[in-house]
Design brief:
With 166 residues, this protein is α+β, with helices and mostly antiparallel strands. The protein has two domains: 82 residues, Ubiquitin-like (UB roll) (Roll); 79 residues, DNA polymerase, domain 1 (Orthogonal Bundle). The chain is 37% helix and 17% strand. A hairpin with a 2-residue loop joins strand 3 and strand 4. The radius of gyration is 16 Å and the shape is globular.
Length: 166
């Protein structure tokens, strides 16, 4: 296929690695690319409208809803998925705090909650409870583990502040 058929190559950075995907349809979303072409299953398909947060990734460090972002719209940019945030044995402070607080039940919202919280705490490691609640208000959790999630983010904030101390 050629570019005239609506399929073009795409170059971007995913989880710190340069990626070149030879044939990406112009209508493909970033979520489709990450899950189907790159095999990264942290971001989930939830609503497909950018409203539930299950598909959240970082684009140049900013939390973004991958289900509504055209894949070609992030050409040349740095994408971080849950898999790139941290790894087992070397968790990001937010991932570690979610584990410590047992902040997951079914786990479907977990990707979005962790990615949204990590982006917030990278910007503001002193985020208040009200700020955390506001930041996570657009992420849906159907299981009702909001109390545990809030606890996890507050724990992560403390952990991140401790890491940042001189």
């Amino acid at each position: 296929m050629t570019a005239s058929c609506g399929v073009e190559p795409l170059h971007l950075e995913v989880n710190g690695q340069a990626c070149s995907i030879p044939g990406v349809p112009r209508e493909a979303t970033l979520l489709h690319l990450v899950r189907n072409d790159l095999g990264l299953n942290g971001p989930k398909y939830g609503c497909g409208l950018g409203q539930c947060g299950a598909c959240t990734v970082h684009v140049d460090g900013v939390a973004a809803r991958a289900c509504v972002i055209p894949a070609h719209g992030v050409a040349g940019r740095a994408i971080t998925t849950l898999e790139g945030l941290g790894t087992r044995g070397r968790w990001h402070p937010v991932q570690a705090a979610f584990e410590d607080a047992q902040a997951a039940q079914c786990g479907y919202c977990l990707n979005g909650m962790v990615m949204q919280a990590a982006a917030l705490l990278a910007r503001d490691p002193h985020a208040s409870e009200a700020r955390i609640r506001s930041e996570l208000s657009g992420n849906l959790c159907r299981c009702g583990t909001h109390i545990e999630i809030l606890d996890a983010v507050q724990r992560a904030a403390v952990g991140m502040r401790e890491v940042m101390r001189p």
